[in-house]
Structures are given as structure tokens and as C-alpha cells.
């Protein structure tokens, strides 16, 4: 089932998400719905807060990046096979010289900005079978994980921009909150309270 993507301005996107247990209700169905919703919106990652659930879960399929001509050969292979479910993840290490890359977000359509992130991470998480995994990732795989991990920490990529850049995109962000944006996937916009 395709779930609506929560739009910028919804409080769930700014909340630190809670860990879940193995017996979380209908977890497999939720994961399948998240995959379907992400693919429907042409995304490479989707975090549970983006479908309105403040839990520590995200899915990633970075294979679309494998077609990028600028990739080195081993990174292309790594991205082609990079499809994961992350449950209760913890980034235990980030290192390397920060590099910028133009990022976007399904919750913030039509806004793309350069964001600096460190190139290497070590992460512990539970997979879809609730088996513990530890992985060291680099390059675009690490970046996509960091972006989705930020979501479960209540951080959006726009929070990482300079105050000047945030001022420049403020109008676009306000329009997204008000539902004044055209997308080809289902979205849920925050309910604006009427002023009295």
C-alpha cells in the first residue's frame, strides 16, 4: 500500500524517533509499504517519520546512483547492490574530510541544496529479520544512510544549511507546508491552524 509522504512543517519530522522491538505490530507490512511508497515517489531512501511514524526505521535502495557516470567502478558495484532495511540503527563512527553533495528529500519537494557530510561511517543496526549487523560504508552509500539517519534524529537536510541559504529557500519551505507544491506522489501536508 502506498503511504502518503509527510511534508515539511509536520512536527513528526522534527521529533527524535523511538526504538522498536522485534514484536512491533505488522512490522513486515510496514516495511513493504515503505518500499512501495519510496519507489512510487522515485526515492532512494525513506524513513518512518516521513510516513508519520516516529520510530527508528528506514529503508534504502541506492541502486539508482549506480548509473551515475562519475562513480568509480567499485562504488558503482557497491551501490547497485545496496538495498537495506535499518531498524534501531546507531552510527558509531563518522570520519574523513567532509564533502558536499546536492541533496533532496521526498518530504521537501523541489528543494535541492549542497550538504557537507563526512565520507565514512560505521553503523550498527538490525535488519528486517531483526538480526544485528555492523557495516562500514563510504561515499554515496554512507551519505544516503546519514541523510535517512538524520530523519530518525529529527534533523532535516535543510537544518544543515547556512542561515543565508535557509533564508533564500524560506518561501519554498512555507509553500510546501501550505501544500502549494506539485508532486507526482501522495503527500500529507500539515494542518494549518487558523488564526483568530
From TrEMBL:
Gene Ontology BP annotations:
translation
Q: Which reaction(s) does the protein catalyse, per the Swiss-Prot or TrEMBL entry?
A: N-terminal N-formyl-L-methionyl-[peptide] + H2O = N-terminal L-methionyl-[peptide] + formate
Check the UniProt entry and state the signal peptide residues, or none. none
Keyword match S-adenosyl-L-methionine: no
CDD domains according to UniProt? Pep_deformylase
The UniProt record gives the binding positions of Fe cation as 105, 147, 151
- Cofactor binding summary note: Binds 1 Fe(2+) ion.
Q: Which InterPro entries match?
A: Peptide_deformylase (IPR023635), Peptide_deformylase_sf (IPR036821)
Question: Which GO MF terms does the UniProt record name?
Answer: metal ion binding; peptide deformylase activity
Has keyword Hydrolase? yes
Look up the record and name the cofactor or cofactors this protein needs: Fe(2+)
Q: Which domain of life is it from?
A: Bacteria
Kindly state which keywords UniProt assigns to this record, in alphabetical order.
Hydrolase, Iron, Metal-binding, Protein biosynthesis
EC number(s) recorded for this UniProt protein: 3.5.1.88
- Where is the catalytic site? 148
Q: Which family does it belong to?
A: Belongs to the polypeptide deformylase family.
What the protein does comes down to: Removes the formyl group from the N-terminal Met of newly synthesized proteins. Requires at least a dipeptide for an efficient rate of reaction. N-terminal L-methionine is a prerequisite for activity but the enzyme has broad specificity at other positions.
Q: What is this protein called?
A: Peptide deformylase
Q: What is the protein's species of origin? A: Psychroflexus halocasei
Amino acid at each position: 500500500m502506498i503511504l502518503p509522504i509527510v511534508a515539511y512543517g509536520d512536527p513528526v519530522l522534527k521529533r527524535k524517533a523511538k526504538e522498536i522491538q522485534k514484536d512491533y505490530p505488522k512490522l513486515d507490512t510496514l516495511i513493504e509499504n515503505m518500499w512501495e511508497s519510496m519507489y512510487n515517489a522515485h526515492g532512494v531512501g525513506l524513513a518512518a517519520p516521513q510516513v508519520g511514524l516516529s520510530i527508528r526505521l528506514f529503508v534504502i535502495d541506492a541502486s539508482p546512483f549506480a548509473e551515475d557516470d562519475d562513480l568509480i567502478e567499485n562504488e558503482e558495484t557497491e551501490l547497485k547492490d545496496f538495498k537495506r532495511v535499518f531498524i534501531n540503527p546507531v552510527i558509531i563512527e563518522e570520519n574523513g574530510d567532509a564533502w558536499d553533495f546536492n541533496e533532496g528529500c521526498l518530504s521537501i519537494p523541489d528543494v535541492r541544496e549542497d550538504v557537507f557530510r563526512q565520507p565514512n561511517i560505521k553503523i550498527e543496526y538490525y535488519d528486517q529479520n531483526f538480526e544485528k549487523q555492523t557495516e562500514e560504508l563510504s561515499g554515496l552509500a554512507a551519505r544516503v544512510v546519514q541523510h535517512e539517519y538524520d530523519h530518525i534524529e529529527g534533523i532535516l537536510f535543510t537544518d544543515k544549511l547556512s542561515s543565508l541559504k535557509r533564508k533564500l529557500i524560506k518561501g519554498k519551505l512555507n509553500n510546501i507546508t501550505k501544500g502549494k507544491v506539485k508532486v507526482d506522489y501522495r503527500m500529507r501536508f500539515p494542518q494549518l491552524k487558523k488564526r483568530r
